[in-house]
Design a protein that fits this description.
Shape of chain B: globular
Structural class of chain A: mainly alpha
Helix content of chain A: 55-70%
Protein name (chain A): Twin-arginine translocation pathway signal protein
Number of strands of chain A: 2
Oligomer: heterodimer
Structural class of chain B: alpha/beta
Largest sheet of chain A: 2 strands, antiparallel
Strand content of chain A: under 5%
Helix content of chain B: 25-40%
Largest interface: A-B, 41 and 43 residues
Radius of gyration of chain B: 22 Å
Strand order of the largest sheet of chain A: 1-2
Number of helices of chain A: 8
Chain lengths: 178, 529
């Protein structure tokens, strides 16, 4: 790989991408989506840039599971982002470092274009582009890309289906009351 | 309201400390330190403490008790499992579900209880030179532990998930049997894997550990045993790090523990890792080698009726038919069982994304899942994996996937699909990145015969980590002797699943209980003399 994480940090490109806005434009729905402002959840791992990457991928990974209305989708996306953040915090420090690196590669335009073949930033990319990215990594002959796909699959599907909001749609009643 | 007698015990004065709350470094002294509170550590600690020994139990994970067990995957996996339930082998080819809390894996296992199979004990004696492990010699220890932990026949009918396995096998003339369980007054809920909310499961959390604490023994949790300090064949001290609040990283405080004897029961992966960190003499480089997993491949089926595989005792039916096709030294055999199916487990297990994934998740109520557990470690092409240390000194298991294993995985995917169709499945989905839902046995057979057997393509999981500190009389291929004593040290005993020289060939909890009862009783005799 031409650009290492160290170089990214050195050039300061990574450092300058911190975003303050909470407004996220989600590509596949071609709609504007806003994280609920009253959320008290404080993200401890995911940075704004990581969230943008995920906000592009999550709706393609989960498709209609996220809900029917824009409001539902928006809420669901928020929950999945929060769930992913919480899940990553429970992983070992070395795996957290790997994920940090993965999100940086996916965010940074040259590596995003080179490795993920997604030309536009995640929130502007089409669903088609993101689907192709997932399929390519899923079936890649490079073990690294395959494992990255599987990590995204695991994090995102776990975050969504751990959430009671998803249970109705799959006919799960939730745990019994004792 | 279920009584949480562990919390009540603490209120009544049990000595239980939380490493994450520690404000200063400590130096402790005791007679015996037990590192790990799972199947091996719990039983060993009870036997020693009941004989009057001063016992200090150490646990890296948190203390969670029945009132914390809300049957939610969201809470259970991060708090009760190693690496939040996503521990993986070095090449990420196998996901390992291993407990990490007071009670170890017994807090989260599915209560399945088998005695060590006869042929396994035979191989341990004949090929690994173990002394004292014949069926006759082991029987009293199985009897003792079955009684202690309420292991008995489960008389309630199997849930539909298990019964599909039974009916499919029956159609094909494959014998199945009932699984015994370590429960008392079980509510038949199906959430054993998230901690038993009713204290029915006779895990170490509700049996041996409370007994140790009642008799004045101590428990220190959120405390990671880092390494032994040793001199002239004798371990002097165990150095531990108190974990941070979240429990994923060591915090600032160090605890040093001096003791006469050390029982290492941190589980396969954990136990060899501690030995590796301790720079012990290991002339034959055996520490961490021969670690086994019973690698499991998975087959999903959509049934034309509701299965509700999340509900009811998780494992009540099994078949050893495919273990008995050939001797352990032959082509790899596998045991058939089923898992409980909860949303996160299903969603992460089932392959594909987008609409494909949505579609299969919609079948959740009708999903039947079958597992095949490979009996690894008996053939020369099945040497298992090796526990290594990462840069930060935490362990990782390097488990190469060999053609010998893949041949068995393909056979197992075929067997499971045939059984599921025989039971009336509408669709069968072998869990593989390249597979599609197949609608007939004929179609599935052709497809499975073609599927590439490659790392990451086939989903492999494991809930049974064994070996890494193999018992044996020959120092060139083992780490401890038949009594569990470390070859290189005079006062360290490995008493957990890591001492097995091969996999067990059955869910291992009862094998570990019996081993621990035997080894701890033997150790007690030595300490007295």
């Amino acid at each position: 790989m031409a650009i290492t994480r160290r170089q990214l940090i050195k050039t300061g490109i990574w450092g300058s991408t911190g975003l303050v806005t909470l407004r996220l434009l989600v590509g596949p729905f071609q709609s504007t989506i806003q994280l609920p402002q009253n959320s008290e959840y404080e993200f401890l791992f995911l940075r704004e840039a990581d969230k943008k990457v995920l906000a592009g991928i999550i709706p393609v990974m989960l498709e209609q599971a996220l809900g029917d209305t824009e409001q539902e989708k928006e809420n669901s996306l928020h929950w999945v982002l929060q769930g992913v953040d919480e899940a990553i915090l429970g992983l070992t420090p070395s795996i957290q470092d790997e994920l940090r690196e993965l999100f940086m590669l996916l965010y940074f335009a040259p590596t995003r274009r080179l490795l993920a073949r997604v030309w536009n930033p995640w929130l502007e990319a089409t669903g088609e582009e993101i689907r192709n990215f997932l399929e390519q990594w899923r079936n890649s002959r490079f073990i690294l890309l395959q494992t990255a796909y599987q990590a995204l699959h695991e994090l995102i599907t776990a975050a969504w289906y751990a959430n009671p909001a998803s249970w109705d749609s799959i006919g799960y009643d939730g745990p019994p009351i004792i | 309201m279920i009584q949480d007698f562990f919390t009540e015990g603490i209120q009544s004065g049990w000595i239980v400390r939380d490493g994450a709350q520690l404000q200063e470094d400590l130096l402790l002294e005791t007679e015996v330190v037990v590192i790990g509170t799972g199947a091996g550590g719990g039983v060993s600690a009870e036997i020693l403490s009941q004989a009057g020994k001063e016992v200090l139990m150490i646990e890296e994970g948190p203390l969670k008790t029945s009132s914390d067990f809300h049957m939610k995957e969201l809470e259970a996996y991060p708090s009760l499992y190693q690496e939040s339930g996503s521990r993986k082998t070095a090449d990420r080819g196998i996901t390992i579900y291993q407990g990490r809390a007071v009670g170890g894996s017994t807090t989260v296992n599915w209560t399945t209880s088998f005695r060590t199979p006869e042929e396994t004990l035979r191989v341990w004696q004949e090929r690994h030179g173990l002394v004292g492990f014949s069926s006759v010699e082991m029987q009293p220890w199985f009897d003792l532990m079955e009684k202690r932990l309420g292991i008995s026949d489960w008389l309630i009918p199997p849930n539909e998930n298990n019964d599909v396995l039974r009916r499919g096998c029956e159609k094909l003339g494959i014998p199945t049997h009932r699984i015994r369980r370590n429960v008392k007054g079980c509510f038949n809920l199906g959430y054993c894997g998230m901690g038993c909310p009713t204290n029915a499961k006779q895990s170490q959390l509700v049996t041996t550990i409370p007994k140790v604490l009642e008799s004045g023994g101590q428990l220190f949790y959120s405390l990671r045993a880092e390494y032994f300090v040793h001199d002239k064949g004798q371990v002097k001290e165990l150095v531990c790090s108190a974990m941070d609040q979240r429990g994923t990283r060591p915090g600032k405080r160090t605890i040093r523990i001096r003791a006469k004897s050390f029982i290492l029961a941190a589980g396969a992966i954990g136990s060899p890792a501690l030995l590796l960190r301790s720079n012990l003499p290991d002339p034959y480089q055996q520490i961490g080698r021969r670690t086994f997993l019973h690698p499991v491949c998975v087959s999903g089926a959509v049934m034309p009726f509701e299965v509700s595989a999340h509900f009811g005792a998780p494992q009540t039916i099994y078949s050893d038919h495919f273990l008995q096709q050939s001797p352990p030294e032959g082509p790899i055999g596998y045991k058939l069982e089923v898992p409980p199916v909860h949303p996160v487990l299903a969603a992460t297990t089932l392959k594909g994304f987008g609409l494909d994934h949505v579609k299969i998740m919609k079948e959740f109520p009708n999903l039947q899942i079958t597992l095949a557990l490979m009996r690894d470690g008996f053939h020369e092409e099945s040497q298992g994996g090796q526990v290594k240390l990462k840069k930060d000194k935490t362990p990782v298991l390097d488990y190469p996937l060999t053609p010998y294993l893949w041949e068995g995985v393909r056979r197992a995917l075929l067997s499971m699909a045939e059984i599921q169709f025989a039971a009336g499945a509408k669709q069968v989905l072998p869990v593989h990145e390249d597979s599609l839902p197949y609608t007939s046995w004929k179609q599935a057979k052709v497809a499975i015969e073609q599927l590439p057997m490659e790392v990451l393509k086939v989903l492999l999981v494991s809930a049974h980590v064994m070996g890494g500190c193999a018992m044996g009389q020959d120092e060139s291929n083992s780490v401890v002797d038949s009594s569990g004593k470390l070859h290189s040290m005079n006062n360290v005993y490995v008493i957990d699943g890591s001492a097995f020289p091969t996999s067990v060939g059955a869910n291992p909890q009862l094998s570990i209980y019996a081993l621990a009862a035997k080894q701890a009783t033997q150790l007690l005799k030595e300490l007295k003399s």
